[in-house]
Protein: Alcohol dehydrogenase
Organism: Microbacterium album
Amino acid sequence: MSAGVGGTAAVLHGLGERLVLEEVRWSEPAPQEVLVRIEASGICRSDLTVSRIDNGFPLPLILGHEIAGVVERVGSAVTSLSPGDHVVACPVNHCGRCRSCRIGEPFRCSDHAATQRRADEEPRVSADGRSLTQFIGIGGFSTHTVMHENLVVRVPRELPFHVACLLGCGVATGLGAALHSARVGPGDTVLVIGCGGVGLNVVQGARLAGARRIIAVDRNPAALALATELGATEALQADEVDVVAAVKEITGGGVSHAFEVIGVPDTVGQAMDALRKGGTAYLVGVQRPDAVLGIPFRHFFEQKGIRGVAMGSTVPHVHIPEYADLYLQGRLYLDALVANRIPLADVNDGFDRLLDGALARSVIEFA
Ligand code: APR
Ligand code: ZN
Ligand code: ZN
């Protein structure tokens, strides 16, 4: 057993149960790993989902995957990071060597196991000699983490930790969907259905791309107010208006890009209906893998397309430093996305806020 470091983590022992604070032990980083002291950790909806529904992650499990912190130690083969670096984690887990990685598409990596320790190696984190699972190889609801260097991106020191942590998941997913998956540009007309943590960042991405119109749709008026603050040019309340008719009227026939950012079949249909000829719908919202979407053929006769999107087609080491710059220049708004700053001991309250339909993020801070 190597020296490692002791700390505290919020641990999930059974699906649907509350997280329990425990003393844990992180092992010494292997050659390609880094030990990070976590300063801030965002509570993302997928943490909540995985705490309630079996997604195949062995228990006990340390959730959390949206972190910012400071590198404390680096493994012997790490050359791009040093102790003292401020970093964020990005869950675009990638080996760096497969074909997708080599052609600049790490979000399509075919070898996720390459960045994890093998079962016969010492576990990265344990409690009382029992090994714990790190969610997405990160395990962010914890004072420390040991991660493969490919998941770790250096960010400027001026970036406050409580907003920096959002860059890796919520911001990368939403901003990237508009900027990289869809490559929105000036003159484009954009529809964003669902303006939660991710959809609000699709709105921001479309604004940064210079889209001509950005139409936000949500059934929650508070979400629409925030969407307007972040760049929507029109806001439509889902249960009050005929969304498709309103979009067609505003745009004179339909949008070029429609983003579904909820994850339900009905709104996928709405996205397709609201497209102009030749437009494309992007499915950012996650549905059950076996969900069946009934898409009428007339859409394809009108040359429309439909595309799945994951993690906003993010290339972590290229895009995250760009987003950090945009924030520091005042062009990317992140402060409005943090509603609540809490200690690790209140992590279960953060989950409760999500269950209550809270809009913006709760961020755990480690003082
Ligand atoms: N019509 C309009 N708006 C809706 C509807 C509906 N039928 N149902 C939900 N909404 C709105 C909610 O009011 C909320 O503002 O959609 C938004 C969803 O936001 P969040 O719950 O915060 O979810 P978010 O974290 O943004 O993720 C959305 O994207 O990446 C995926 O896995 C993620 O599937 C999830 C989706
Ligand atoms: Zn996330
Ligand atoms: Zn790869």
Summary: The chain has a mean pLDDT of 96. The chain is about 25% helix and 25% strand. The radius of gyration is 21 Å.
